[in-house]
Specification:
This protein has 6 helices and no strands. It is an all-alpha fold and 187 residues long. Helix 1 packs antiparallel against helix 4, helix 1 crosses helix 6 and helix 4 crosses helix 6. It is globular. The protein starts with a helix and ends with a helix. The relative contact order is 0.17.
Length: 187
């Protein structure tokens, strides 16, 4: 087997395993809270992702946490909020939790698959370059994507040459998955 093909096969499997961890938590929170996140406007989702990414950077910088949630749990939250953001962009926000848990999971699976497909395409073109990066670089890239997203939101989506909010959410999901793969499976 060609080494790059084997590596990409492993990456697909690792991506799917990490997404399964994220989906399991998403499903459990749906059980506990329902789709209460449906009331969030996209800018609020972006701010929630900012809080999570900023906390990761703070932990990376300080080396200490005072709250019993680690970097791993924050990357999981970014994956899940990124998917929530994509759902909100498609459906628009609501004044109520207006979809069933089952429908929310269908949307989750749809966007997780799109993130996987995008990652595989980029992974092919970039030859698994992410594997040589530090986890802290993923954090910085996520924060950069958040600032880009906030700028696009302040422009009401009217960009001249840039991708939209959805593309930035996808990238945030994939950078978080890369971090989780390194945490779960090692460097």
């Amino acid at each position: 087997m060609c080494p790059i093909y084997k590596e990409m096969k492993d990456t697909r499997q690792q991506f799917e395993q990490v997404i399964a961890i994220c989906r399991d938590l998403f499903s459990k929170k749906l059980h506990d809270y329902g789709p209460a996140w449906r009331i969030l406007r996209p800018a609020s989702v972006t701010d929630q992702i900012f809080i999570k990414a900023n906390r990761i950077r703070s932990i990376e910088t300080k080396g200490v946490t005072l709250v019993d949630e680690d970097i791993r749990s924050e990357f999981i939250a970014i994956v899940n909020y990124g998917i929530v953001g994509l759902i909100q962009l498609e459906l628009g926000h609501s004044e109520t939790a207006d979809i069933t848990n089952e429908k929310a999971l269908e949307f989750y699976d749809k966007y997780a698959k799109q993130a996987l497909d995008l990652m595989l395409a980029k992974n092919h073109d970039y030859d698994e370059a992410w594997r040589s990066m530090r986890i802290s670089s993923y954090t910085d890239l996520i924060l950069m994507k958040i600032y880009r997203t906030k700028q696009i939101e302040s422009l009401s989506g009217q960009t001249l040459v840039s991708e939209g909010v959805d593309a930035n959410y996808m990238d945030m999901i994939n950078y978080s998955v890369f971090g989780l793969i390194k945490i779960e499976f090692g460097e």
